[in-house]
Every structure is written in C-alpha cells, then in structure tokens.
Design goal:
The protein is α+β, with helices and mostly antiparallel strands. Helix content is 29%, strand content 16%. The protein has 1 helix and 3 strands; from the N terminus they run βββα. It has one helix at 38-59, and strands at 9-12, 21-24, 32-35. A 3-stranded antiparallel sheet has the order 1-2-3. The longest helix is centred in the middle third of the chain and has 22 residues, at 38-59. It is elongated and about 40 Å long. The mean pLDDT is 92.
C-alpha cells in the first residue's frame, strides 16, 4: 500500500486555532498534518501517511486496507 491509496480529509482550522488547514487520514489512526493552504495540508498528510506506513511495516503491525472513496459531509 502507498500513501496515495488512502483518502485524506482536509478541513479549515478556526482562526483561534491558528488558521490554515488540517488534513487527516481516517484509516490510519493518528495520522494527520496541517498546512497554510489545502494543497500544502494534503501534501503534508501524504508525507505523514508514508511515515505511518513505513513505521507500521518496520514494527510488523497490521496495515489497514484502503477502502473505496466515500464522500463525507461536515456540518
């Protein structure tokens, strides 16, 4: 599996939290990143996912199989 096989959710951060964007890879527990723009947050999330996958392989941990894309709606 590769980082780009996983869905990434990118959401804006509130101004009181510093603004910018947060990106989360829901299928990889704890895998998230941020950035000043949505594109930067997405790129950073893929870097984080690569690191997550690499560490899981090194430790012999189970790696979740990527699920088909699902559109999510946020309130």
């Amino acid at each position: 599996m590769k980082a780009h096989d996983y869905q990434v959710d990118v959401m804006p951060l509130a101004a009181e939290l510093g603004g910018g964007y947060v990106a989360e890879v829901p299928e990889l527990p704890g895998c998230m990143s941020d950035g000043e723009t949505p594109e930067e947050a997405l790129a950073n999330a893929y870097d984080a996912a690569e690191a997550w996958l690499s560490t899981a392989r090194e430790l012999g941990r189970e790696i979740p199989v990527p699920q088909p894309f699902q559109q999510r709606r946020y309130a």
